[in-house]
Amino acid sequence: MLTVNFKHLQLRPGDVVLDLGCGEGRHVISVYLEQDVQAVGVDLSLKDLKASKEKFAAFDQSGNSAKSFGLSAANALQLPFADNTFDKVICSEVLEHIPDYEAALCEINRVLKPGGLFCASVPRAWPEKICWFFSEAYHNVEGGHLRIFEASQLNKQIESMGFSTLHRHWAHALHSPFWWMKCIAWKNQDNNWIIKQYHRFLVWDLMDKPLFTRTLEKLLNPVMGKSVVMYFRKEAV
Fold first, then answer.
1. Global pTM?
2. At what angle do helices 193-208 and 211-224 cross, to 10 degrees?
């Protein structure tokens, strides 16, 4: 399930791309498949990195010397890369989990080349507030969401670091009701028939991509998209 639209990330052959907080690899693997790039995924969780490695095995194109794939366990506040290393950086659904997210943004700024592109996505404020209202456990679990971002404020904060905004869109509108239902029935969500059926619907939508649901989500995203996705260019000095 991709949150980032690679059309706006403008991937080019030879790019070095960082997926910060890659989790189980949905974006870093997709970047690798999308273009002849050096794709690097970073995460704190060794479990998630192992899952990403296992998933990547089915897509490995090691015979193609024009692209490469790598994973690293690292802290977003102390990235093990030199200044101006990456042409593109993705940080999708990560900043809301980091206590000192400003320091993470500074590290992203440090490792991104002047003129490079940065994509950040976070949960949209009003759908997220509904989740918080119905369930404290939703955001108080270990590794949960520490804050709710107002997109306009985060956008201005990133711009103040020397970035210019390129584009903004919303994603995953059909997933908002799913999380609202999970939060309403948090203690019994695993046994809730409605939640199970809606999950089956989301899996069907993800795998089959029917025109009806793809069109419906496209129409609903500006209204109730679960995530807000922002694209920036780091201004050359």
1. 0.94
2. 110
